[in-house]
Design brief:
Length: 147
């Protein structure tokens, strides 16, 4: 497991270890057999807005954006390859996470973990665009957070 962790917020450097632990638990929980490499960046509103606008053509701040490097039919083979696999990039907007934690009535730590799990599942090919996909992904997020 390798996490390339970058944060614009010095007080959040402990999340590299937290995210590594969560990713290891998620990989095991999903019965996958590979060694993931993930890039995680904790960014401000300006950066996430720019990324959201440039790559998704949505002109607003969002909480998390992920870019999967593995799409298509070979993904399942990769995730059982016993090899190192570059999964992709996750960008988490800390100010948005703070707002959401307050709105949802839980702590920032829970929100930062939730956003990482959400992004990680996207990297692994999960989605929530359709109701049936949402019914798989959302409970899985909670299962992983409870590990």
């Amino acid at each position: 497991m390798e996490i390339d962790f970058n944060s614009e917020y010095q007080e959040l450097t402990n999340y590299e270890e937290i995210y590594t632990d969560i990713a290891n638990k998620a990989i095991k929980h999903l019965s996958l057999d590979f060694d993931p490499i993930i890039s995680v960046s904790i960014v401000d509103e300006e950066m996430i807005h720019q990324i959201n606008n440039e790559y998704r053509h949505i002109d607003r701040v969002t909480d998390v954006i992920s870019f999967a490097f593995n799409d298509g039919e070979d993904r399942e083979k990769l995730y059982h390859s016993h090899q190192m696999v570059v999964l992709g990039d996750i960008y988490i907007c800390f100010p948005q996470a703070e707002r959401q934690a307050s709105e949802y009535g839980h702590g920032i730590d829970r929100e930062m973990k939730f956003l990482f799990v959400h992004g990680l599942l996207h990297l692994l090919g999960y989605d929530h665009m359709k109701k049936e996909d949402e019914e798989i992904m959302f409970p899985l997020q909670e299962e992983i957070l409870a590990l």
